[in-house]
Amino acid sequence: MKKIEPFRLYYGYIVDSSNDIIDEVTAVEMPAGKSYTGQKQAEIFCHGGQFIMKQILSEIVKHKCRLAEPGEFTRRAFLAGRIDLTKAEAVADMIGSKTEYAYSSARNNLLGRFSECIDGIRERCINLLAEIEASVDYPEEDIDPDDCRGLFKSLKHIIDEIRELSESYSAGKIIKEGYKVAIAGRTNAGKSSLFNILLNQNRAIVTPTPGTTRDWLEEWIDLGGFSVSITDTAGMRSSSGVVEKEGQKSSLYIMRDADLVIWIVDVSRKSWRKELENDFEEYKDFDNIKVIFNKIDKLAESRLKNIKGKIDQIDAFCISCKTGSGIKSLKNSLISRINSRMPDLTDKLIITSERHKQKLDSFLKHLQKVIRGLKKGLSPELIAFDFRQGINEIDEITGKVYNEEILDRIFSRFCIGK
């Protein structure tokens, strides 16, 4: 058989065990060190279609092969040293990105911006640690006061950087996981109608009968470039069946977990003021509620004017799900609210991983112990120990230090094929 040349695209056919042609394909050999995984591998390019791919995979598996585990290719790339752990995680984030912000953040990590930042901080820490350990090697000499002041200054700069990175997670979480909005309120206030309007589709059933929504519905939308999770919750009322009560329990959990609760009030009801007062008392511990006055199309001009006069007092919006009045302003308000949580994304590094935040916070605690140790005049051995422990924490971010449990947890969320 003619020797296969690496990187050369070959044309041919995939045939089954009966020598019947499954598909015409092209294939290329990627040599070790030059492939995605860093290992020698072959790549086959077939025509699209689930059935064709399943047929080809079925034939390949018959030849002492197996299907890859989720994330196995990227895991092998990490173990081969082609990418670090932050870049490996960025692969999954790129695939799962729902908006431009999420994509841009993942792309920056894949290109190595976060790795470079962490490696730069690590390098400075190693240099500072070397100064401290010099006192361990020469115990007759204490750390010079001038050197100590320099250490304090350098450590403070690093702590400020780490704290800023850690605090960026509040915005990074929204970028990666989305901004969570729960639509809540009493039964038949228009929650499902607003849910459908924001989604621009009839996702929830809307009827004049109270208690139609007995469970919650969740969908994602792209709002101003942000991924926003909209949840339609079960309506709140005192008299309801067992199923509806369970739905209301779920509603409370969703409201507490949400970044924002849109509480809809049916202002066409004569008792809406008293009901709203009772609701405010019931949910007074919530600090994330925005009131929406719905069904203003049913009000006379005088009543509507009276309601609009109260808007500024309770930070509310007037809308009509029937006519669409106020919906555009509500959307713009949501976008502004999310933007207020965001730093300047053009030049700042944002962390989107809870794992990264935990490691940064742990690193921060170790650095603070180092500073306390220097102030108390503790032995350089103890100070150096805390410093090394801190450096190990950030080494786990990039994967310089890792264990199989960490890798299993990270790569288990990858799709098969990556």
The stretches of 5 or more residues where confidence is low (pLDDT under 50) are 209-214
SSE pattern: EEEHHHHHHHEHEEHEHEHHEHHHH
The span between the termini is 31 Å
CATH architectural name of the largest domain: 3-Layer(aba) Sandwich
What is the CATH C level class of the largest domain, in words? Answer: Alpha Beta
Q: Give me the side-by-side strand order of the main sheet.
A: 5-6-4-7-8-9
Mean pLDDT score: 84
Total domain units: 3
Helices and strands: which structural class?
A: alpha/beta
The largest sheet is:
6 strands, mixed
Strand content: 5-15%
Instruction: Compute the CA-based radius of gyration.
Output: 29 Å
> Mind telling me the CATH superfamily name of the largest domain?
P-loop containing nucleotide triphosphate hydrolases
Structure description:
The chain is an alpha/beta fold and 418 residues long. It has three domains: 58 residues, Probable tRNA modification gtpase trme, domain 1 (Gyrase A, domain 2); 145 residues, tRNA modification GTPase MnmE domain 2 (Four Helix Bundle (Hemerythrin (Met), subunit A), Up-down Bundle); 167 residues, P-loop containing nucleotide triphosphate hydrolases (Rossmann fold). The protein is 51% helix and 14% strand. The protein contains 16 helices and nine strands. The chain has a six-stranded mixed sheet, with helices on both faces. Strands 1-2-3 form a three-stranded antiparallel sheet. Strand 5 and strand 6 form a beta hairpin. Helix 5 packs antiparallel against helix 15. The longest helix has 25 residues. The chain is flat. The two termini are 31 Å apart.
